[in-house]
Design goal:
The chain is of the alpha/beta class. The protein has two domains: about 200 residues, Aspartate Aminotransferase, domain 2, CATH 3.40.640; about 100 residues, Alpha-Beta Complex (Aspartate Aminotransferase, domain 1), CATH 3.90.1150. The strands form three sheets. A seven-stranded mixed beta sheet has the order 3-9-8-7-6-4-5, with helices on both faces. Strands 10-12-11 form a three-stranded antiparallel beta sheet. α1 packs parallel to α2, α3 runs parallel beside α4 and α6 crosses α7. The termini are far apart. Bound molecules: pyridoxal-5'-phosphate (PLP).
Length: about 325
Amino acid sequence: MRWPGLWGPKGRIWFFVDNATTGVNAVLGSLELQPGDEILITNLAYGAVRNAAAFAAGRRGARLVTLELPFPGAEPADYLNRLAKALTPRTRLAILDHITSETALVLPLAEMAACCRAAGVPVLADGAHAPGAIDLNIPSLGVDYYTGNLHKWALAPKGCGFLWAAPERQQGLHPPVISWGLGQGFVQEFDWVGTKDPTPFLAAPAALELMQAWGLDAMQAYNHHLAWQAAVWLTARWGLEPPAPRAMLGCMATLPLPASLGSTREDAVRLQYALLYEHRIEAPILCLGGRLWVRISAQVYNALEDVEALAQAIESFG
Ligand SMILES: Cc1ncc(COP(=O)(O)O)c(C=O)c1O
């Protein structure tokens, strides 16, 4: 599988895992934590990843420390300042999203990783949403571990993630399921984790080749442009503001909804189902900070007409 940076001078430095959750668990389960150590995670992290980190910390008497990153009002420089202040001599790992899940922000990952490196803290990057969505060259980010999904924006079938580890981090890294490869090296250990269906992994190269044939850069540029156009247009239509600068968005955007649509989790669930069943539009509706938000995703088969259809459907409820 050809993807910039997945191959080192001595061969493969990544392997398939079923999904990003598995990649995160592999790294967390391999950490040698002591009581009083800290794992840093942000308030924007994916819930399952937070659970895995809380579990790994809790079983060793370590602490999970949450770095609060404002949303809306996201600003890269502010995020960096907050990160620098949250790192302590006890921080053993910082878990940083490349693209956040609910809030759909592209974090300044390379700068954040540099900040962690300066403090001697390894970084596990959660790139579940990144491959195929944004330009991705993993070694250039300066992170220690990177896990991503190919079944989101890279068009592979479900159950197709990967975990990459910097050469100096490969020793001592184990899959959550120990099997025949134990002690035979990093790649062997992860390549065979018991009998499973490898179909999604076998299909991944074809998915990547398809995107390359279509023009990956052009796809990403189109999707980003459409997501930003939609963010500006929808928020202006509702008298609101985009929650982050353009540089912090990829192919998705999480946008505030008019207050008349409700403010509770129940309102969010109701609206999401109504959009799906009454208008055949699938978009997550979130309840964040006492208001409702919609997360839009732009793919090459979408156009501004879809954004207009979403706006009209949403407005029909309030
Ligand atoms: C940021 C982030 N991390 C992790 C995950 C988990 O991905 P998976 O369920 O494929 O393991 C997701 C899923 O949406 C995500 O958005």
